[in-house]
Structure to design on (340 residues):
């Protein structure tokens, strides 16, 4: 007798396939809005702040420049571009622009050269390098007013330290606060003393990011320290150099504190003959001494356009240098390939 085995029956029913829970339309749109709009919300505070303290004053200044506007009585009528025409024909404006460019060149070029040299020295393996790197930042920490007062005393024509040293060396004293070129040199020395170390640290950070193995490879190929510096270090930090040049240009064309406090005894801002009156100092004189906000706003916009022009020139020059250097490297690689 045989018995057949039947599989046990189960009361449990098979599981149904998983079906994702459908989201409500509100949850779907909320998720989509979060993906699309979150990046704009994160960067919105910057643009809101820029609009309040940057864009709005710029537009409002342009509106003021188109009107005859007194500091106390307010707007007196629309004059169009008359304020711009008046300033472009005013010799005081061109004198201030000449002084600004002169001081800028006397400060920016030595400042950039000194910053590169200091950064190159600090990039070496020297003792107490952290101490020296922090020391170059001390002039930047000192307030501009204190720096100006110290240098103004040192460059005093009668009792200043500089002229006393020159007289000790049997050299005639220099009229630092009376003549044009000496006053520009004195003001530029303040700017160089304060900003060279700051720019040196920025360039040093760029030099630290250059891979060290390329220096070792170049040294094995026989390249000396000077050749490595000009052929490898400077091309590698070109973007940082452009940044430093642009910031130095903007700051140099907006210089105000140093010429304003260089000679506090004079009644005319910028010296008795306006020999070191910069454009921003001339703007301040128009607005708060002559109470002519319309012309002062026109000068502000002219200076803004000049700064933009200098920035574009810096960009084009740097781009030209980069393209020339890339072609030179390509030609050199082709010649090297033909030799091999």
């Amino acid at each position: 007798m045989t018995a057949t085995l039947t599989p046990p029956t189960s009361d449990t029913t098979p599981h149904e396939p998983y079906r994702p829970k459908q989201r409500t339309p509100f949850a779907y749109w909320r998720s989509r809005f979060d993906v699309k709009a979150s990046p704009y919300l994160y960067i919105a505070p910057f643009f809101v702040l820029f609009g309040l303290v940057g864009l709005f004053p710029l537009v409002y200044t342009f509106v003021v420049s188109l009107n005859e506007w007194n500091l106390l009585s307010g707007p007196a009528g629309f004059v169009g571009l008359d304020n711009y025409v008046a300033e472009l024909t005013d010799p005081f404006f061109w004198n201030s622009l000449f002084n600004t460019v002169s001081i800028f060149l006397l400060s920016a070029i030595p400042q950039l050269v000194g910053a590169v040299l200091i950064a190159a020295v600090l990039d070496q393996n020297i003792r107490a390098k952290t101490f020296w790197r922090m020391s170059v930042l001390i002039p930047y920490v000192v307030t501009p007013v204190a720096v100006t007062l110290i240098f103004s005393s040192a460059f005093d024509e009668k009792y200043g330290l500089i002229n006393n040293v020159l007289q000790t060396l049997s050299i005639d004293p220099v009229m630092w606060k009376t003549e044009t070129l000496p006053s520009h040199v004195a003001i530029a020395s303040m700017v160089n003393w304060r900003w060279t170390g700051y720019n040196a640290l920025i360039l040093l950070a760029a030099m630290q990011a250059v891979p060290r193995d390329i220096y070792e490879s170049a040294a094995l190929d026989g390249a000396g320290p000077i050749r490595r510096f000009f052929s490898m270090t400077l091309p590698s930090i070109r973007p940082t150099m452009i940044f430093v040049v642009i910031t130095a240009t903007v700051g140099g064309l907006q210089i105000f504190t140093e010429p304003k406090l260089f000679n506090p005894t004079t009644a005319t801002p910028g010296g008795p003959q306006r020999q070191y009156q910069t454009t921003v100092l001339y703007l301040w004189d128009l607005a708060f001494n002559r109470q002519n906000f319309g012309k002062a706003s026109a000068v502000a916009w002219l200076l803004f356009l000049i700064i933009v022009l200098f920035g574009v020139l810096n960009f084009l020059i740097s781009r030209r240098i980069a393209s020339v250097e890339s072609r030179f490297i390509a030609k050199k690689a082709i010649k090297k390939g033909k030799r091999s």
About this structure: Strands lie at 67-70, 74-78.
